[in-house]
Amino acid sequence: MPWDRLTYLQVLYQHERWFSWVRECQNDEEENREKEQKKVKMEAALFKRHWKASQQRLKESKTKEDKKRQDAYLEKVYKERLAEREAEDPDDMYWDPIEDVLEDNRGSFIGQLSLLFRVSLRLEYQVGIPPQRLISQSQILFSTSFGCQSRKTLPTPKGRTMWE
Q1: pLDDT averaged over the chain?
Q2: Does 69 lie in the same domain as 50?
Q3: What tens digit of pLDDT does each residue of 57-75 get?
Q4: For residue 17, what are the CA distances in angstroms to 10, 11, 28, 30, 116?
Q5: Same domain for 24 and 65?
Q6: Please, which residues have CB within 8 angstroms of residue 7's CB and are 6 or more apart in sequence?
């Protein structure tokens, strides 16, 4: 029986070594599987980052391209309208706002002179003051309205002042 026991112990030892070797192999495989999973996850994250970055670049380039196209279209429309304006009336093309203001001032000055003339004619008709006298009265009125002289009372034929 001693041989039996010895063989039994040898077989038991062989089985134990075998099982430990299998366990080690399984642990190694599991570790490799976990490492592979981590590697796959890292590659997927890297791919997502690169995909997002490339999509962002693509979006920016499309936006830039659209803006260039829009600017080119607007420039084309602007040039067409300029050409139409030149064809319609070339004088409108060179409008000067300063000249426009000066022309308005000239017009208002002429308007003031015509108003003074109408007032003088009305006064001559209503009151009977001769035009030479009206010119001097309008000069006094004009100078007093700008503070050049003190306001003077001008006699009228009926004995009233001009401002009553």
Answers
A1: 79
A2: yes
A3: 999 999 999 999 999 999 9
A4: 10, 10, 16, 20, 130
A5: yes
A6: none
